[in-house]
From TrEMBL, chain A:
Belongs to the ThrE exporter (TC 2.A.79) family. It is a multi-pass membrane protein. GO terms for molecular function: transmembrane transporter activity. Residues 15-253 form the Threonine/serine exporter-like N-terminal domain. The keyword Cell membrane applies. It is found in: Cell membrane. This is Threonine/serine exporter-like N-terminal domain-containing protein. Coiled coil: none annotated. Pfam families: ThrE. Keywords: Cell membrane, Membrane, Transmembrane, Transmembrane helix. The chain crosses the membrane at residues 117-137, 143-160, 172-190, 196-218, 230-251. GO terms for cellular component: plasma membrane. GO terms for biological process: succinate transport.
UniProtKB/TrEMBL annotation, chain B:
This is Threonine/Serine exporter ThrE domain-containing protein. The chain crosses the membrane at residues 7-25, 57-75, 117-143. It holds the Pfam family ThrE_2. Its main location: membrane. InterPro entries: ThrE_2, ThrE_Dicarb/AminoAcid_Exp. Residues 11-137 form the Threonine/Serine exporter ThrE domain. Belongs to the ThrE exporter (TC 2.A.79) family. It is a multi-pass membrane protein.
């Protein structure tokens, strides 16, 4: 242990690193990248022997040979790659000595309210995503369902984002969004019997579907972060249950 | 439908789908186009391999490998983490659809179909993960070899001088 720096200095580094780690996990980064970034920031700030452990629900860090150690909980996980990019850029700037520790501290607090795309653009993105993927997956170029999938996907994504504000349980907002999608698809089929409910739903659900979570979980497992891999896999299974359950219930009630 | 039109539709739609997903997960502006390109490349690799009869696992592995390499390439060019390009690019490949269909089959009581679909999800996920791992390995090896040769050449030039 060295007496070069006082406790306040280490406390500052801990704060910065933990905030950076939490932001990256909230943005949906891989665990090895989170740990790597935190270690880099600590080393570049001049701390010896930093130790880090990150899981999708919590980040731990200790400094100064284990004399100081803290943790930070991560409550809210979704994919927001802007956060990952910003933290990464700040860490790069800090490593290149373009900003000092104080500036890094100020900037990393501001990362949390980084601008995102406006809501209408996100809904449009979800709509075109569901329509185009439906055509790709079905492989028979079925243009009848094209507008239907766009409508259902956009509205479903919007419903998901709106319900997310009211409840902290992600399972519930996914379930409700899936039910909204199921109802809309059945309604479209009732209006025009040429539209196939299954095709529309396959396209529309691609906005919420847990495939990416599964793939990320497997990548974490392969990289040796067993704990976070398992946690993410659980999350993906829950999402699949919510989506399949919501749609299944609606289709059973409606008798399609 | 003529073959060239199918190719055009597949390229355009996979690009649009990747960019659309990038919009919903808030990818930084400068990475939008590149993530769309790597999405289109990945989907086209999958499509061709699947058409050639290589089976689901190998096609997914090859396209994930290509996406991983492209992602690392873009990451070096644009100075962003590679995940930013990989996540939107993977959207057309990822086994979300069978995962949802599996749960729906289970809800409807078709247990055999559900099991089949769950197995398919597992296989496709494993293939994509393996493809990524291979791409990381290859890129690391490539840069190591490149730097080693680069150093040798520099030494040689110094000696000559």
């Amino acid at each position: 242990m060295s007496d070069k720096h006082d406790t306040k200095f280490y406390q500052e580094i801990l704060d910065i690193c933990l905030t950076a780690g939490r932001l990256m996990i909230e943005g949906g980064s891989e665990m090895y990248r989170v740990e790597d970034t935190m270690l880099r920031i600590a080393r570049n700030a001049g701390a010896e022997d930093p130790r880090v452990f990150a899981t999708p629900t919590c980040v731990f860090m200790s400094l100064n040979g284990g004399n100081l150690s803290q943790m930070k909980q991560v409550r809210d996980r979704n994919i927001n790659l802007e956060l990952v990019d910003r933290v990464n850029a700040l860490s790069r700037q800090f490593a290149a000595k373009q900003i000092d520790l104080q500036q890094l501290k100020e900037k990393i607090v501001q990362v949390a309210n980084a601008p995102s795309f406006p809501m209408w653009l996100q809904v449009v993105g979800a709509a075109i995503l569901s329509a185009t993927l439906m055509v790709l997956f079905m492989d028979n170029y079925d243009w009848v369902d094209f507008p239907g999938a766009a409508l259902v996907g956009g509205v479903g994504f919007w419903a998901y984002c709106e319900f997310k504000k009211y409840t902290k349980v992600r399972f519930l907002s996914e379930l409700i969004a899936a039910m909204v999608m199921g109802l809309l698809a059945v309604g479209l089929n009732w209006l025009d019997s040429q539209m196939i409910v299954d095709n529309i739903l396959i396209g529309a659900l691609m906005t919420l579907v847990p495939g990416l979570a599964l793939t990320n979980a497997l990548r974490d497992l392969f990289m040796g972060d067993l704990l976070s891999g398992i946690v993410r896999m659980c999350e993906a299974v829950l999402t699949a249950l919510a989506l399949g359950g919501g749609v299944g219930m609606i289709l059973k009630f409606m008798g399609v | 439908m003529p073959f060239w039109l199918e190719i055009v539709i597949n390229v355009a739609f996979s690009y649009i789908a990747s960019v659309g997903f990038a919009l919903t997960i808030n990818v930084p502006h400068r990475a939008l186009n590149s993530s769309g390109i790597s999405g289109a490349v990945g989907w086209m690799a999958y499509w061709f391999c699947f058409r050639l009869g290589m089976g689901r696992m190998v096609s997914n592995l090859i396209s994930a490998f290509l996406i991983g390499i492209l992602g690392l390439f873009f990451a070096r060019r644009k100075k962003c983490p590679a995940t930013i390009f990989n996540i939107p690019a993977l959207v057309p490949l990822v086994p979300g659809m069978p995962a949802y269909q599996a749960v729906r089959a289970l809800v409807a009581g078709n247990y055999t179909q559900g099991q089949e679909l769950i197995l398919r999800v597992a296989i496709v996920t494993a293939a994509i993960g393996l493809g990524f791992l291979l791409s990381t390995m290859c890129i690391e090896a490539f840069y190591r070899i490149k730097y080693r040769h680069f150093k040798k050449i520099m030494l040689y030039m110094k000696r000559k001088r």
